[in-house]
Predict the 3D structure of the following.
Amino acid sequence: MNLYIYISIYYVLIIYVRSYRVQRILRIKEKKSKVQHMHIIRTKFEYITALIITLYILIGNILFLKKKKI
């Protein structure tokens, strides 16, 4: 269970870092095009999925710890 938590946190951090880098690169380039718009949509989707995964992990850990204490 502990290994699962570490792997999932690592995955979420990778998504956050990658999407932040892409958004920063796109902000530096001021040209607006369809490709960049698709990148922005994709990074927003990745942010949302990373948030959902993080919440799922936190809720799962809290429930798992409560079950262990009882």
